[in-house]
């Protein structure tokens, strides 16, 4: 325990004594090994869910909300790197968040405060301020809100169900969110249980189709048919567009990034899983409308991760046949 | 406790300590809830066949020994405890003096509730405690604690402890714990859940050992807004599975205000290696020596108790490869495994965790440290040696150094952070070398010490003399409360 008497003014001779010490000051201590790669980089850092390898290559995150902001920052032309992280590292308790470059390398608390983390809610502002090609603003219409709601409720619920509650996808869930956290069976089991409970709670909170299977029970068919309707609605919205981007914007907007975050993961990540139930969301995306969502996903992917196309293109082609 | 022991020896026994004798009967009165088997462990040796050619003197010594052992179980009250010896009156003629021994005991209450405040090192807390003594009649104890403090937001633990083989100096304990502790010097909160199994034994001459296995799930969470990238990188879960040995030899006359004697303490921990598994793998070792002696043994200071003391602490953490490998890639240490140094109870004149590597405002800890201090305790004017107050002059300092990866140019872009054994050895070598690079970070000062039986309180005025950029010295007053000071 230590106590300060900051409120009491320091007498002048004492202040002079305080100012004269320390008599000798050496250079700062070097940081530990684990810290070195985190503090040497001169780029802002986006903390996301990703594997070590994907993060190093800057590949898409496997978490929809992280991928949305990763995509948007890239669309806006912000230079950044991504590091794999966990919700515990975030100031809001959820990823992603962005840590700006520290203005000065000195080890003072003031310097640390000047580079406070930017939560997801303020990333749009950040991208507009720091990006080299700020994307057009979202259309401010009631329609946008309605379509955003399709992403936030039925499509999100279907994603949560597929990844967290679908038994065929449990190896995928393990790989993405569980084994990464700890090698211990006890820790993994607890995390798996917590994830499943949280996903179920989230779906039940927003699901209006409780009655079919009774209160507190998930109606799986209702979840997926709601998602199918939502995807079809998005596909027909896209079909109306003259530019190929939502709401006929001249360039992809935040809404395009939000849609891409789900469609990309449903098409790509789920395609790795075995089993019909596991991959059914990807099939729904492919079938929505007349393939508008798939081509939308591919256009954004080619635009932002061009070097990844030829290596993955072939396997993708195999799967679509 | 020997004060309470009463040997009712008749005058004839004093003269005849060398006469052959035998114990014909041992009687324990008042141990209502204590198992016979526990008492047998203590008293069987008294009536053993090997006692056939014992003298009265030897028997008295054994009785004393058994009595002391019985009291170390800590299940009997001090008051009402007594040993009574009388000549046996069994009517049979014998060539020996036959005696009967009677132990009169009063059991302590089996269920105890306590609530109060506690001072640990650099922390004050309030606790409630429930203890069940002598649970199964074999001096087992079950203790359940809940506490909350200035830094520990909440802590719960339950310990079941039992003597092994009826020996009060060898105890086996199993503990389950859960806690949540604020670590403001590194902008985070650490939550722990886990358990440990500990075997503790005491030898003569105030030495004690403990060997324990612990499995603890650590969660680094609740980061402050200004947390540094180093702390953020270590956020999340890790399981530590480790074996720890500690050894303590405390020959100081009084732990909170030593006038004479020394303390030697070592701690060694092996985590994650071999069958231990878990997420972290390292060997960690710490040594502490401290001592005190009268400054003027020949009475130069007219019997005024001036003492000088000193202490030295050393520690090292060696990252190891997981599994049974000696050469495989070793992961660098995490913030919750590294050492912290500085604060009112170790290197005074620095803030908590004020020494060593800092990333922004965060003390991120180091892998190798050395810290030492000297002090002189002077009595206040017009107080005697028995007064718990002293004036203290001190100077202390230390170095806390992190293990650096020498090949850092390639490391940033390479596959992972793993280091091979050569990198680890080179890193440790240069870290140890770095300890002696320049003067250690130093502070000196003067203060007042109050030695309460429970804890030692210090109020010091100190100034940092040598410091490194980023290290957080403390100019002016600093309050320290604790039991174990450098």
From TrEMBL, chain A:
InterPro entries, A to Z: Metaxin_GST, Mito_Protein_Transport_Metaxin, Thioredoxin-like_fold
Pfam hit, one: GST_N_4
Extent of the signal sequence: none
Limits of the Thioredoxin-like fold domain: 64-169
Recorded superkingdom: Eukaryota
GO terms under cellular component: SAM complex
Domain Metaxin glutathione S-transferase: start-end pairs: 227-271
One biological process term in Gene Ontology: mitochondrion organization
Protein's name in the database: Thioredoxin-like fold domain-containing protein
From TrEMBL, chain B:
Protein name: Surface antigen-domain-containing protein
The organism of origin for this protein: Podospora didyma
Cellular component terms (Gene Ontology): mitochondrial outer membrane
Similarity section: Belongs to the SAM50/omp85 family.
InterPro entries, alphabetized: Bac_surfAg_D15, D15-like
Stretches assigned to the Bacterial surface antigen (D15) domain: 134-485
Bilayer-crossing regions: none
Membrane topology: Multi-pass membrane protein
A Pfam family annotated for this UniProt entry: Omp85
